[in-house]
């Protein structure tokens, strides 16, 4: 795991640990771990997603489809960390992600997410 991602996960655990139940925290850590594989692409540092990123998108899709509430939960996890660390996703790259990974996104990713939709 990259040092930068480890720092994000550690801080996220602190934030979630005080705000949510431990189950929600461990769920969010799993979400963030998977999404972390796509951060360099989604923030514009890489021109293309890595194989690990695309595999993570598929994993997150599987998680999202496992329960009716999961897409919203995934969204809330992403939103919480993105807000806490002021991570700015590049909108055009979010749109490119499903195309480049040949996988549908079953959960929202954006800089201004509405997780209730």
Automatic annotation (TrEMBL):
Presence of keyword Phosphoprotein: no
Nucleus as UniProt keyword: no
Domain of life of the organism encoding this protein: Eukaryota
One Gene Ontology molecular-function label: lipid binding
GO BP, one annotated term: lipid transport
Signal peptide: 1-21
Domain (Bifunctional inhibitor/plant lipid transfer protein/seed storage helical): residue spans on this chain: 28-115
Keywords: Disulfide bond, Lipid-binding, Signal, Transport
Function according to Swiss-Prot or TrEMBL: Plant non-specific lipid-transfer proteins transfer phospholipids as well as galactolipids across membranes. May play a role in wax or cutin deposition in the cell walls of expanding epidermal cells and certain secretory tissues.
Family recorded in the similarity comment: Belongs to the plant LTP family.
Name the record gives this protein: Bifunctional inhibitor/plant lipid transfer protein/seed storage helical domain-containing protein
Annotated organism of origin: Malus domestica
